[in-house]
Amino acid sequence: MLITFARALSGSTLSTIRRGDGVVLELPGYDRKYRVPHDLAHAVTERELGMAGGVFGSIAGGGVFDNMRVVAGRPRHDAAERSRRLLVANKVSLGIAEVLAGVVHDAVEHDETSTMERARRSYGIFSTDPFPWTEPQVYGAVAMLAELSVEYEANGKVVFTWPDRLTSPVPVPAGTKRGRRGRL
């Protein structure tokens, strides 16, 4: 999946997402007060931490959020239902992605120094499991976002590749039987 984050005329960000299925979507940003686009922080954080169930892994799998619109391509006949199932299944992962992207965003936007402490605390809102990422992974996401924010400021856009391995799988509809039928 290819994502282009571009400065919109309003001063915010407009993300254009080209999915592997040929559908092109637009995702408006609501971040005019920030130097670094929040959606770019999501993409970097989720990719660097390997989060398939976050915003962009969900979109790659067929998820469409309410504020998005299809601008090209032809969605599947059952796209709305698949999107609903996927977003419901990823609810906790999306929450974790939101808080961690916020931590990474703040680290770059405001030169935060307590990034790991905030990341662990934020993750703890959603899970009692040990924090699954290392300090180099988290600070790697901060460094990548800082690098891309310089490109965004200079050019007004960033082209970002989302790896196929981080595409969220679409859950099977309830009541669907899987497997082989009995032999005669």
Question: What features would you describe in this structure?
Answer:
With 184 residues, the chain is of the alpha+beta class. The protein has one domain (2-164). Helices cover 42% and strands 14% of the residues. The chain has helices spanning 38-48, 55-61, 79-89, 91-109, 115-123, 135-155; strands spanning 2-7, 13-18, 24-28, 69-72, 157-161. It has a five-stranded antiparallel beta sheet with strand order 4-3-2-1-5. A hairpin with a 5-residue loop joins strand 2 and strand 3 (24-28). The N and C termini lie far apart (44 Å). The model has no long low-confidence stretch (mean pLDDT 92).
By DSSP, the count of extended strands is 5
The largest sheet, given as strand count, sense and whether it forms a barrel, is: 5 strands, antiparallel
Helix-strand string: EEEHHEHHHHE
Average pLDDT, all residues: 92
Distance between the termini: 44 Å
Count of folded domains = 1
Task: Order the strands across the largest sheet as they lie in space.
Answer: 4-3-2-1-5
Please tell me what the overall shape is: globular
Structural class: alpha+beta
SS field, number of helical segments: 6
